[in-house]
Amino acid sequence: MKLTDIRDNEGATKKRMRVGRGIGSGKGKTGGRGVKGQTSRSGVRIKGFEGGQMPLYRRLPKRGFWNPFSRDLNEVNVGRVQEAIDAGKLDAAAPVTVEALVAAGICARARDGVKILGQGELTAKLVFEVAGASKNAVSAIEKAGGSVKILAQPVVEA
Prior knowledge:
This is Large ribosomal subunit protein uL15. Part of the 50S ribosomal subunit. This protein is an alpha/beta fold. It has helices at about 55-60, 80-85, 100-105, 135-145, and strands at about 75, 115, 125-130, 130-135, 145-150. It has 2 domains: about 20-65, no CATH class; about 75-150, CATH 3.100.10.10. The chain is elongated and about 90 Å long. The relative contact order is 0.12.
């Protein structure tokens, strides 16, 4: 067998119908579009037109709101940070930042920063430089002898 011998099975492919190529072709003259009217013309056609009935996209209510100033933060519990330190993935001497958490594999990517939450137990003395922290997290960190520095939110121009 040679490369030139390879071909599709008989009847596997079908030639496409070229419309508007003469009456004898069976798809000539109007080219399968019927006669006259907006839908027979090129370029325009009312999308979602339901014959004068109120279209679905206008019958349904508008819902929701998108806040342009919202931040997409990684949420990390103090217990998860302690696990990473115990496993040797996070350096207890260096400050805990978004980059350090991504490098340790706690966060997949940086996003808009990290918010520390208070679930779990923290024993290591750590310095956190994060976008936010809950009251429980701050008390757990300070109880272990560490500190929390909340970074300034970057100004977003709307």
